[in-house]
Design a protein that fits this description.
By secondary structure, this protein is an alpha/beta fold. It has nine helices and six strands, in the order ααβαβααββαβαβαα. Helix 7 links the parallel strand 5 and strand 6.
């Protein structure tokens, strides 16, 4: 399996990388990529960490697992490469941002790399998936690893904003210290949830920026 390249995360997670479950996870992912079509491409597997160093994290958006269609996953939760059709959940995210921040135009690309470079950790709970099989790698060990990442951020940093959309993300975020961080929760931006009135109007993006500004942290250009 491709190794994480980001030095700031490497030093923080070195103990996790040496645990038995992670060594087994590496083997399982290696075999999966050898024996079937898996996403994202191996060199993009740790993109969320590569683009957003530990020291620069301001906001964490927690997804479930990568998109499972060809060419869609780029290692960032909810994001797709330039030129790929914007998925329905991301379209709803863009619509909420437009309403919340009074924007007239929706973006024409689903690539969220520019968010990651500003300190938004776009973290999927499971970092790999088999083609056309959502959650196929959910039990490999990724969940334990990403829970350790969330715990590390909660314990060692202050004044982060965690965006937890849907029941899955909210359950995974129960360990976050809410005395030190802002936790924003609402329904998932998927069409099913959004059309039931659980997504639109959450104002998470303006709330996040107001919190960051209040703590003298540069806000995000959403």
């Amino acid at each position: 399996m491709v190794q994480m390249q980001a030095p700031s995360w490497q030093s923080k997670l070195v103990g996790e990388f040496q645990k038995e479950y992670f060594l087994q996870l590496q083997e399982a992912v290696q075999l999966a990529y050898q024996n079937s079509s898996c996403y994202p491409p191996k060199d993009l597997l740790f993109s969320a960490f590569d683009y957003c160093t530990f020291d620069e994290v301001k906001v964490i958006i927690l997804g479930q697992d990568p998109y499972h269609g060809p060419g869609e996953a780029n290692g960032l939760a909810f994001s797709v490469p330039d030129g790929v059709r914007i998925p329905p959940s991301l379209t709803n995210i863009y619509r909420e941002i437009a309403t919340d921040l009074d924007r007239l135009m929706l973006p024409n690309s689903g690539n969220l790399t520019h968010w990651a470079k500003q300190g938004v950790l776009l973290l999927n709970a499971t970092l790999t998936v088999e083609k056309d099989k959502p959650n196929s790698h959910a039990k490999m060990g990724w969940q334990q690893f990403t829970s350790a990442v969330i715990e590390l951020l909660s314990d060692q940093k202050e004044n982060l904003v965690f965006m937890l959309w849907g029941n899955f993300a909210q359950q995974k975020g129960k360990q976050i210290d809410r005395n030190k961080h802002m936790v924003l929760e609402c329904g998932h931006p998927s069409p099913l949830s959004a059309n039931q009135g659980k997504w639109f109007g959450n104002k998470h993006f303006s709330l996040a920026n107001a919190y960051l500004k209040a703590h003298d942290i540069l806000p995000i250009e959403w």
